[in-house]
């Protein structure tokens, strides 16, 4: 009997304790604990992510951006992330094929490295998050009016736009006595067209006469470049993927003609230029990888993410070409390794 009374008393005490623990503060505490557990689980629940990468063409700048992106995500996720890396060999139609394959595979995120892959990915899906990199102007690429810094769709990313007015000023600093500047670019790359329009205006303000020399693709670069060097004192090339893949052709025409080339980025400059105001494409890709982590793991809404820009630009030069052309490089320029 005593044992039975003791058991009933113990049960009453336990029941009272359970009832007193059902107050608001305890419930809030429980919810907070669940929330914290959920946040931790989202990053450590063993989930794996498959990321599709479409790169327009193989060249130094785009390769560096892809490597930076992969390094950032791998550092964050280790073996929980896999990459389906595809190269379109400079063909827009191939970009579309690759993007559609990623959609069919239901990848978790698409990295579009350059403008054509970005356009292809945006056309292929409005659901899978897309991050661009090495894209100069998202408003131009995606035909967005009233640009606010956000796309409002399933796209964000990083821009490789260096300050174009400062690039024009660099050209003026190096070639104050030049009269005619040739603007060499691919007419099939919307972001190259955008840059040329801006640089043309900036150089005109500085007193230069500018003439545009547009090539449709790599097949007519040689003929267009040959025509250009016969008419100008200096050539300017923007961040143009087709030009970046043909720097040897351009250099073989410009060097014998003693025509200096100022470029929009370091990779083209290394191949055929004398100087550039350039960003780090590796850093740009790395920054994009950090954005991807926020989307994949922390649930960031890509449509509301601001497009980000390279934090730093650097004046750089190619010593051997500057010496061959008797160009005096002011202080503050960093030599490009040759």
Write up what this structure looks like.
The chain is α/β, with parallel strands linked by helices. The protein is 49% helix and 19% strand. It has two domains: 49-160 and 280-306, Response regulator (Rossmann fold, 3-Layer(aba) Sandwich), CATH 3.40.50.2300; 164-278 and 314-335, Response regulator (Rossmann fold, 3-Layer(aba) Sandwich). It is built from 14 helices and 13 strands. The strands form two sheets. A seven-stranded mixed beta sheet has the order 7-6-8-9-10-12-13, with helices on both faces. A six-stranded parallel beta sheet has the order 2-1-3-4-5-11, sandwiched between helices. Helix 12 links the parallel strand 9 and strand 10. Helix 3 runs parallel beside helix 13. The protein is elongated, with a radius of gyration of 27 Å.
Topology:
Blueprint: H1 2-20, H2 24-44, E1 49-55, H3 60-77, E2 81-87, H4 92-105, E3 109-113, H5 115-124, E4 130-135, H6 138-142, E5 155-159, H7 164-174, E6 180-186, H8 190-205, E7 209-215, H9 221-229, E8 234-237, H10 241-244, H11 247-254, E9 261-263, H12 266-272, E10 275-278, H13 281-296, E11 308-309, E12 314-317, H14 319-324, E13 334-335
Summarize this, please?
The protein has 338 residues and is an alpha/beta fold. Helix content is 49%, strand content 19%.
């Amino acid at each position: 009997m005593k044992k039975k009374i003791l058991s009933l008393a113990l049960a009453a005490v336990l029941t009272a304790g359970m009832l007193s623990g059902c107050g608001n503060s305890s419930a809030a505490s429980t919810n907070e604990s669940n929330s914290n557990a959920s946040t931790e689980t989202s990053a450590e629940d063993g989930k794996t992510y498959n990321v599709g990468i479409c790169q327009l063409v193989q060249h130094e700048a785009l390769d560096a951006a892809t490597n930076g992106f992969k390094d950032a995500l791998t550092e964050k996720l280790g073996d929980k992330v896999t990459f389906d890396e595809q190269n379109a060999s400079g063909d827009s139609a191939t970009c579309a094929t690759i993007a559609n394959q990623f959609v069919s595979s239901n990848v978790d995120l698409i990295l579009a490295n350059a403008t054509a892959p970005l356009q292809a990915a945006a056309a292929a899906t409005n659901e899978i998050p897309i991050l661009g990199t090495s894209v100069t102007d998202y408003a131009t690429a995606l035909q967005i009016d009233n640009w606010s810094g956000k796309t409002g769709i399933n796209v964000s990313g990083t821009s490789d736009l260096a300050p174009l007015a400062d690039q024009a000023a660099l050209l003026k600093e190096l070639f104050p006595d030049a009269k005619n500047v040739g603007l060499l670019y691919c007419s099939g790359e919307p972001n190259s067209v955008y840059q040329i329009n801006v640089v043309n205006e900036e150089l005109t303000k500085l007193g230069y006469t500018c003439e545009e020399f547009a090539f449709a693709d790599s097949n007519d670069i040689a003929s267009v470049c040959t025509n250009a060097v016969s008419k100008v004192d200096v050539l300017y090339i923007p961040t143009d993927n087709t030009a970046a893949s043909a720097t040897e052709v351009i250099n073989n025409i410009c060097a014998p003609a003693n025509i200096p080339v100022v470029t929009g980025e370091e990779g083209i400059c290394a191949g055929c230029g004398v100087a550039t105001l350039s960003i780090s494409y590796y850093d740009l890709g790395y920054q994009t990888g950090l954005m991807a982590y926020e989307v994949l793991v922390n649930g960031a809404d890509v449509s509301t993410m601001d497009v980000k820009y390279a934090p730093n630009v650097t004046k750089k030069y190619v010593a051997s070409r500057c010496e061959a052309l008797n160009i005096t490089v002011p202080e503050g320029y960093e030599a490009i390794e040759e």
